[in-house]
Every structure is written in C-alpha cells, then in structure tokens.
C-alpha cells in the first residue's frame, strides 16, 4: 500500500510530488505514461511563467522539473493508469495486465488533450497533414503555406510560431473576435504572413494518398473558398482526461462538472475523501502552468494531512 499515487506528470503532478515527499510522505509514486512535463512541452514559446523572463520553449521550461521534484524521493513509473476505484478506505489503481496497486490517497493530474473539430477529413488525414502540434510538425511545412483553425490562445500563438517557419499562414476562425489574450491578438494582426479567414468554418479537409491537399471553408454569407495547403493545425480547445474515473456502469468515482472537469474545493479535495485533483483537470482551472503547479502544491500538502490524520 503506497501513501500517495499521483496520476499524471505535468506541472501539477510534478509539483505535488515535490511537496508531498519534501513534506514527509514516504511512499509517493507518480504514474506518467510519457516523459514528465505534460502538455506544455508541445508549446513553442512560453513567456508568462514568473521567474523565467526569457522566452523559452515548453521543453526548455520543463527540462529541470523532474530532477528537482524527484529529489526528495518521488518515484516515477512510466505506466498508464486505466482506472481508479475505492473500496473502504483503500484506493485501487488498475494497470495493463490486470495489475493493481493500492494507495491510501490519490491525486488526479491527468490534464487535458486537444479536442478534434469534427470536420470531414480531419480523422482521415490526422498525422498526414492534420496536426495539433506546431512545435512537432511545423518544420515539415518550412517555406510553404499552412492553415490554422481556432481563435484561442493556442491557435494564435501557434499561428505566430508557424509564421516564423512558413511563407504564409491562413488563420481560420468562426467568429470576428478572438478569445486569445489581447497582446497575442495584436501580434497576429500585425503579422504580414498571417491571413485572417474570419467568420468562417472548415467544411472539409481534402487530400489524396500522400496527405492533405487543401481546406474548403465557408463564410457566414455562405461563400466557399478552396485554400490549397498541405497542412492544417487544429487548435479548438482541450478535453479533460477523466476516463480513468469511470466504472463499468459509466459512473464516475467523484463529482464532475457538466464539461467533465473534477469538482474540487480550495484544498483540491474532491467529493471523495482522500481523492484530490489538480491542474487543468479540475473545475474552473485557469489552464496555466503556474496555476497547475500551485494546485499541485496545495494538493500535495492536503494529501500529507489526509494520510497522517
Ligand atoms: P498536463 O500538462 O496536461 O499533464 C497531464 C499529464 O498526465 C500528461 O503528461 C499525460 O501524459 C498524463 N496522463 C494523462 N492520463 C494519464 C493516465 N491515465 N496515466 C498516466 N498518465 C496520464 N500555459 C501557460 O501558462 N503559458 C503558456 O504559454 C501556455 N502555452 C500553451 C501552449 C500549448 C500549445 C498548450 C497545449 C498549452 C499551453 N499552456 C500554457 C497550458 C499549460 O500547458 C497547461 O495549463 C498545463 O500543462 C496543465 O498542467 P497539468 O499538470 O494540469 O496537466
Ligand atoms: P480555447 O480558449 O477553448 O479556444 C478554442 C477556440 O477554438 C475558440 O476560439 C473556439 O471558437 C474555437 N473552436 C471550438 N470548437 C470549434 C470547432 N468545432 N470548430 C471551429 N472552431 C472551434 O482553447 P485553447 O486556445 O486551446 O486554450 C485552452 C486554455 O489554455 C485556455 O484557457 C487558454 O487561455 C490556455 N492557454 C494559455 C496560453 C497562454 O497563457 N499563453 C497559451 C495556450 C493556452 P469560439 O471563440 O468561437 O468559441
């Protein structure tokens, strides 16, 4: 029986591990199926993490976190948690091959993943011209033209990143106003390589055996446009990663919001004693590295109190 199982190794999970182990919990394991760092490692630049005044990539920002966060005994296991349940006071974590680990307390830090726009051709050409990661795939379109779909911080920031690599970026957004921060919007509006395709939806992503060949858009007047590009980056929001909470009857272990985020109080406690949630997965998250990290610290301290009670 371990003291605390942390599920997810992004900013929230890593920070929780640091606080829980430094605060005295002995047996703390962070389960992360990839490399620690979380979704920010896909970001091309981050300029709003306090104490890091230089603009750095997400990879650069997170590089030193595992070493510091594991210094006090946090263990990292490269495993995917399939399910979490509770019997009496004991949590059970299910892994592949029916492996089960028991824990006194559990912290869910599984974050979120990119949402699909649901347009024709998106799934068919995913990985063959349709991407959700400019840092990963932008270079394939060096000096070429690409499209970006979305109007939030991610879409605009990644459109700016792509404009540094590509000859032209078509930014397709369904409204006139952007959801992104004003400073980011300003940079986009002033970038001569970015053409705005506003009040427009993507009707279809077209392609052939080699991959994407173009995007058909439709504006609010019903006019269609055929934009010939070999790649489209889809940034239409994020989905909370909550599937591990559901049992075979599709019942969640703890209370969720309508959008599927975990309901917590100010101490990151969920509706189930001993179960905590932190970062992007929780209700009303600001979806920022600094906030996820702060949540992780709060939850780590909460777990110490719970286990030692
Ligand atoms: P995540 O970072 O999502 O980490 C969750 C981790 O859990 C992942 O590593 C995942 O592999 C793991 N996981 C999920 N399910 C399981 C499972 N079942 N078993 C094991 N492991 C699991 N924020 C800023 O502050 N500034 C920015 O400039 C900024 N730019 C961004 C740019 C992009 C392109 C994106 C996508 C996000 C950006 N963000 C930015 C938001 C920021 O990345 C998130 O708010 C932050 O990463 C949330 O941290 P987290 O720990 O809650 O979750
Ligand atoms: P977001 O803020 O939810 O924006 C999603 C965008 O996609 C919106 O413009 C939305 O349009 C559009 N959209 C949604 N569904 C669509 C569909 N089916 N077809 C076409 N367009 C669609 O998501 P995000 O940009 O990924 O950001 C997620 C969170 O992370 C936010 O809280 C954001 O602030 C944060 N974040 C912060 C930073 C930063 O601090 N620098 C960077 C990246 C992300 P509407 O506007 O019309 O709804």
UniProtKB/TrEMBL annotation:
One of its GO biological process terms is:
removal of superoxide radicals
Q: How is the cofactor bound?
A: Binds 1 FAD per subunit.
Q: What class of enzyme is it?
A: oxidoreductase
Q: What is its EC number?
A: 1.8.1.9
Molecular-function GO term, any one: thioredoxin-disulfide reductase (NADPH) activity
The UniProt entry, under PROSITE patterns, shows: PYRIDINE_REDOX_2 (PS00573)
Report the cofactors: FAD
Which reaction is the catalytic activity of this chain? [thioredoxin]-dithiol + NADP(+) = [thioredoxin]-disulfide + NADPH + H(+)
Q: Which InterPro entries match?
A: FAD/NAD-bd_sf, FAD/NAD-binding_dom, Ferredoxin-NADP_redctase_2, Pyr_nucl-diS_OxRdtase_2_AS, Thioredox_Rdtase
Q: What's a GO cellular component annotated to this UniProt protein?
A: cytoplasm
Q: What UniProt keywords apply to this chain's record, in alphabetical order?
A: Disulfide bond, FAD, Flavoprotein, NADP, Oxidoreductase, Redox-active center
Q: One Pfam family this chain carries?
A: Pyr_redox_2
Q: How does it assemble?
A: Homodimer.
Q: Which family does it belong to?
A: Belongs to the class-II pyridine nucleotide-disulfide oxidoreductase family.
Protein name stated in the entry: Thioredoxin reductase
The organism named in the record is uncultured Campylobacterales bacterium
Q: What is the lineage of its organism?
A: Bacteria, Pseudomonadati, Campylobacterota, Epsilonproteobacteria, Campylobacterales
């Amino acid at each position: 029986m371990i003291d605390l199982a942390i599920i997810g190794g992004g900013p929230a999970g890593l920070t929780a591990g640091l606080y829980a182990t430094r605060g005295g919990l002995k047996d703390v394991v962070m389960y992360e199926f990839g490399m620690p760092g979380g979704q920010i490692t896909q970001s091309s630049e981050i300029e709003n993490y306090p104490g890091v005044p230089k603009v750095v990539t997400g990879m650069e920002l997170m590089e030193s976190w595992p070493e510091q966060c594991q210094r006090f005994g946090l263990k990292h296991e490269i495993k995917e948690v399939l399910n979490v349940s509770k019997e009496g006071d004991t949590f059970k974590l299910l892994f592949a091959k029916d492996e089960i680990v028991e824990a006194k307390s559990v912290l869910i830090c599984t974050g979120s993943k990119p949402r699909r726009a649901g347009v024709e051709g998106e799934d068919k050409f995913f990985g063959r011209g349709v991407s959700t990661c400019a840092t990963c795939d932008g270079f394939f379109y060096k000096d070429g033209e690409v499209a970006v779909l979305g109007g939030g911080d991610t879409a605009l920031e990644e459109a700016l990143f792509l404009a540094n690599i590509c000859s032209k970026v078509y930014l397709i957004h369904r409204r006139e106003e952007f959801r992104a921060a004003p400073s980011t919007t300003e940079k986009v509006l002033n970038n001569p390589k970015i053409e705005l395709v506003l009040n427009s939806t993507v009707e279809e992503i077209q392609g052939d055996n080699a991959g994407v060949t173009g995007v058909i858009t439709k504006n609010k007047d019903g006019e269609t446009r055929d934009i010939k590009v070999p790649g489209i980056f889809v940034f239409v929001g994020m989905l909370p990663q909550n599937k591990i909470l559901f049992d075979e009857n599709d019942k969640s272990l703890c209370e969720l919001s309508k959008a599927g985020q975990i309901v917590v109080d100010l101490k990151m406690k969920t509706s189930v004693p001993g179960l905590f949630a932190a970062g992007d997965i929780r209700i009303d998250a600001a979806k920022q590295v600094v906030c996820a990290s702060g949540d992780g610290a709060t939850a780590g301290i909460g777990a110490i109190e719970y286990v030692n009670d």
